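pls design
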């Protein structure tokens, strides 16, 4: 009997994969959260708020309402903004009226595409004034400070890379020397290659 149970257990392990719950929050904890880990976990267990990331800078609040309202009635959406320019910088907070709606969103909206980007949702303990602004040195999100790839939907280069590209452009302009005079004999060679017999050809002679 014990052998049969062992074989059955082995077969289960070989043929079935345990799928993690889609409404389970990530292990991320906001480093600016003032409470303990226990308080954080308790807040997530009752929250009706979601953090949404990896958005295009051009995604509108109307688009977000359209997709997130499929999981439940929305109380409000707070767009993430650059601290300096006050323009969208790729994240938002979605507040539902119930915890169950937030869980439904985690299950059915997380990982879907919006403006050709895979959006990420996570349970959040609750929005507080000031959290709508990016925490990066340039005013946007920290992730965009050090991003090396070019991402048109998130403002092009990451902030540090954009600064490097600008410095490289300035160096190229400073090192470039425009040719102000044509070296002796060069004009004759050019005319010869173009099939012109003499410098006077240029004047129509």
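designed seq:
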């Amino acid at each position: 009997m014990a052998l049969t149970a062992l074989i059955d257990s082995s077969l289960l392990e070989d043929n079935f994969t345990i799928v993690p719950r889609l409404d389970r929050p990530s292990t991320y904890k906001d480093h600016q959260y003032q409470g303990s880990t226990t308080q954080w976990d308790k807040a997530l267990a009752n929250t009706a708020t979601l953090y949404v990331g990896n958005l295009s800078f051009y995604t509108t609040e109307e688009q977000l309402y359209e997709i997130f309202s499929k999981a439940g009635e929305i109380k409000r959406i707070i767009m993430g903004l650059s601290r300096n320019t006050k323009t969208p910088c790729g994240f938002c907070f979605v507040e539902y009226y119930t915890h169950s709606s937030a869980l439904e969103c985690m299950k059915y909206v997380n990982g879907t595409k919006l403006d050709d980007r895979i959006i990420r949702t996570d349970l959040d303990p609750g929005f507080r004034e000031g959290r709508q602004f990016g925490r990066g040195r340039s005013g946007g999100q920290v992730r965009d400070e050090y991003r090396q790839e070019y991402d048109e939907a998130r403002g092009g280069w990451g902030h540090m890379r954009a600064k490097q590209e600008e410095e490289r452009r300035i160096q190229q302009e400073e090192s470039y020397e425009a040719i102000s005079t044509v070296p002796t004999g060069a004009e004759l060679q050019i005319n010869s290659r173009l099939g012109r017999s003499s410098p006077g050809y240029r004047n129509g002679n």
